[in-house]
């Protein structure tokens, strides 16, 4: 077994974590003149946390670009965020993040990251979100290359096992290297080690046994160890432990690390039923990027945390499929058998839905007039009769991306302490502080915005503190 090199015993700025937020912090701190070390708990192949599975980020901008089709104002961004969080956000901090997001596309591009035209279909993100050329892993690899070229030292398989915090001041972190403890002292620290979504026992503290049926879309290394240490050392918590970015993903996905290829974007084209073959929510409530993140929680509330998306031949080519093929049948009765659903109940649900569909002009890029009438729950848009065989279905379970319970921060990304006021030299960025902005709900690309904006700020402020 190859022995790992130990990090230096002291450094200006210590970055804990290895994803987008951590790398933005490391690059900003290094460009700010600090000596920077990154400790990543995962092996090199799995470095980067959930950034590996991302595709895009959402930033305010004033005009169209070569990869964005039009402007996306700060006010519109705020309205979208307010809507999906239902007001559960720190408005001042959120508006600050949005204003700072306007510079991020240029800053990220300066670090070597390239963008591509937006994907079409149900995503409807061509104007609002910038897609990374090559996806999240390519973006991440570029940031690592830039950081290392600047002189940032990165250490993999190096989890933090202890934080020494004296009152409001960070003193050192103990990491595990080759199974042995190693202490790193630093003038400033940036905690960017993700949430606790891969820690099923912690999830069960809020969700109960329901969490046993959750699938974790991202890295198995985000267990919340650093977050727990921060809270135990007096960091002020923010957020609800049951709030998270949760989507409906293919139930055949692995328990951990299934990634973006297990997500399903076809809800708007059909109906969703639980194990009793009953519909339970409006599948056409709004554009998919604004509502896809409600479906994880919706499925979590269903019996056995399982549901099925059902549609017909008219829609099979209108969305990006899962890694797994859809279940197919020539009749609804046959499909019910393959899904282990009560046949009579599914036929009744399907007949009631088809009879409730009103005439309209179908257009998946607009809030069209295809709706149901007299049905509870309704389908407000994109409602078409499901009557053209073959019929298809995808089984889905709750897919947890990241959790919202975290550490409270200010505009400088400084961690706020329970004892009152900000920490002297402790900063946080990314999922570990996302609950400041995301108290509830989600809209596509916001997680990367939070990580990039506050990662850059944390790195700049940490470097300034270290120099002083």
Automatic annotation (TrEMBL):
Record keywords, A-Z: FAD, Flavoprotein, Oxidoreductase
A Pfam family of this chain: FAD_binding_2
Q: Boundaries of each FAD-dependent oxidoreductase 2 FAD-binding domain copy?
A: 12-439
Domain of life of the organism in this record? Bacteria
Q: Which InterPro entries match?
A: CobZ, FAD-dep_OxRdtase_2_FAD-bd, FAD-oxidoreductase_2, FAD/NAD-bd_sf, Succ_DH/fumarate_Rdtase_cat_sf
Cofactor list: FAD
**Signal peptide residue numbers:** none
Molecular functions (GO terms): oxidoreductase activity
Entry protein name: Tricarballylate dehydrogenase
Give the species this sequence originates from: Roseovarius pacificus
């Amino acid at each position: 077994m190859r022995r790992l090199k130990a990090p230096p015993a002291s450094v200006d700025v210590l970055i804990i974590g290895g994803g987008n937020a951590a790398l933005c912090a490391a690059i900003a701190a290094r460009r700010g003149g600090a000596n920077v070390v990154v400790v990543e708990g995962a092996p090199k192949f799995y470095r980067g946390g959930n950034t590996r599975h991302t595709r895009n980020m959402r930033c305010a901008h004033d005009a169209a670009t070569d990869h964005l089709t039009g402007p996306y104002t700060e006010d519109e961004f705020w309205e979208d965020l307010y809507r999906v969080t239902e007001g559960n956000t720190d408005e001042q901090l959120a508006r600050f993040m949005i204003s700072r997001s306007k510079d991020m596309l240029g800053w990220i591009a300066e670090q070597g990251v390239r963008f591509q035209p937006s994907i079409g279909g149900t995503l409807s993100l061509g104007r609002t979100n910038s897609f990374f050329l090559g996806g999240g892993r390519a973006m991440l690899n570029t940031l690592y290359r830039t950081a290392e070229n600047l002189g940032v030292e990165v250490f993999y398989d190096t989890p933090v096992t202890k934080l020494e915090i004296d009152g409001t001041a960070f003193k050192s972190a103990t990491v595990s290297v080759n199974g042995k403890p190693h202490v790193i002292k630093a003038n400033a620290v940036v905690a960017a080690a993700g949430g606790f979504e891969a820690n099923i026992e912690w999830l069960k503290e809020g969700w109960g046994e329901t969490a046993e049926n959750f699938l974790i879309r991202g890295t198995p290394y985000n267990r919340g160890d650093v977050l727990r240490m921060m809270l135990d050392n007096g960091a002020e918590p923010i957020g609800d432990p049951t709030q998270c970015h949760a989507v409906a993903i293919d139930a055949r996905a692995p328990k951990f690390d299934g990634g973006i290829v297990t997500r399903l974007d076809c809800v708007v084209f059909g109906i969703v039923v639980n194990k009793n073959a009953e519909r339970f929510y409006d599948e056409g409530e709004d554009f998919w990027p604004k509502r896809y993140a409600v479906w994880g929680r919706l499925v979590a509330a269903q019996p056995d945390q399982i549901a099925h998306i059902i549609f017909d031949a008219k829609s099979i080519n209108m969305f990006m499929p899962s890694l797994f093929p859809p279940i197919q049948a020539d009749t609804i009765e046959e499909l019910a058998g393959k899904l282990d659903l009560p046949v009579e109940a599914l036929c009744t649900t399907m007949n009631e839905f088809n009879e409730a569909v009103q005439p309209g002009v179908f257009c998946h890029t607009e809030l069209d007039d295809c709706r149901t009438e007299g049905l509870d729950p309704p389908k407000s848009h994109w409602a078409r009769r499901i009557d053209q065989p073959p019929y298809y279905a995808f089984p889905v379970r709750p897919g947890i991306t990241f959790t919202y319970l975290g550490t409270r921060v200010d505009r400088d990304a400084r961690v706020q302490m329970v004892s009152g006021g900000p920490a002297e030299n402790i900063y946080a960025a990314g999922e570990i502080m996302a609950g400041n902005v995301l108290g509830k709900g989600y809209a596509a690309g916001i997680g990367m915005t939070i990580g990039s904006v506050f990662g850059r700020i944390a790195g700049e402020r940490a470097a300034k503190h270290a120099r002083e």
